[in-house]
């Protein structure tokens, strides 16, 4: 079975967004704030989970 090399990044990003969304929901913050924080944390200036521009473009196309 062939696994797309972008799949672990996508799953990690989705899990991080869900966790941050639930965390911020408990302190009554809008979901948009969670999405922004997840983008900052996962992006090239945070923990750099996603660095490649092609991968960023593919993840952006999904949304």
Explain what the structure shows.
This protein has about 60 residues and is an all-alpha fold. It has one domain. The protein contains three helices and no strands. Helix 1 crosses helix 2. The longest helix has 20 residues. The radius of gyration is 13 Å and the shape is globular. The protein starts with 6 loop residues before the first helix and ends with a helix. About 10% of the residues are buried. The model has no long low-confidence stretch (mean pLDDT about 75).
Count of helical stretches: 3
* Structural domain tally: 1
Strand count: 0
Structural class by sheet pairing and helices: mainly alpha
Order of helices and strands: HHH
Write a brief structural summary.
With 63 residues, this protein is mostly helical. Helices cover 67% and strands 0% of the residues.
Describe this protein with a few key phrases.
globular, mainly alpha, 0% strand, 63 residues
Secondary-structure map:
Elements (H helix, E strand, L loop, with lengths): L6 H20 L4 H12 L10 H10 L1
